[in-house]
Write a structure and sequence with these properties.
This protein is mainly beta and 145 residues long. The protein is built from one helix and eight strands, in the order ββββαββββ. It has one helix spanning 81-89, and strands spanning 12-16, 24-26, 30-43, 55-69, 99-104, 110-123, 131-138, 143-144.
């Protein structure tokens, strides 16, 4: 099969429920998924660098920003399980605040990682659908499969 482009909306962003429920559940209601890599350089410039900066890559990190709409059954109050799982992680501290996340492409390629999450809860202006946003910051290396 030929290589083709695909739409960002065909990526699936999931969080692992852990505990007795176990397994991954999709975070639904999203309209944007953005990857932001970052790194730290160790300065290795010396007199022999002849005035040019030199460095070694000392550390790498990644942040995923997911944005969308709050999903809730307005009659029962039931929430989207993926959004609710992210919100629960966002209330924890220490090792308990780390969750496992997975992104799957349409072709089945996955990126799995451990991360903490910060959630911006429902909000918006008068005529807006209630927004939902999360910043997911990796801890350790991402695993590509």
């Amino acid at each position: 099969m030929a290589l083709t482009k695909f739409l960002a909306r065909d990526l699936v962003f999931e969080v692992n429920l852990g505990g007795s429920g176990g397994g991954f559940v999709e975070v639904k209601g999203l309209h944007s998924l953005t990857h932001s890599p970052n790194s730290t350089d160790a300065d290795t410039s010396d007199f022999e660098s002849a005035g040019h900066d030199e460095h070694l890559k000392a550390a790498r990190g990644d942040t995923w920003t997911i944005t969308g709409f709050t999903l809730e059954d307005v009659l029962t109050g039931d929430r989207d399980p993926g959004q609710a799982a992210c919100e629960a992680l966002a209330q924890l501290v220490g090792p308990e605040a780390m969750g496992t996340f997975r992104i799957t492409s349409p072709g089945g390629n996955t990126i799995t990682f451990t991360a903490s999450v910060e959630v911006t809860l429902a909000g918006g202006a008068t005529n807006d659908a209630a927004a939902w946003n999360a910043t997911v910051k990796t801890s350790g290396a991402m695993i590509f499969a």
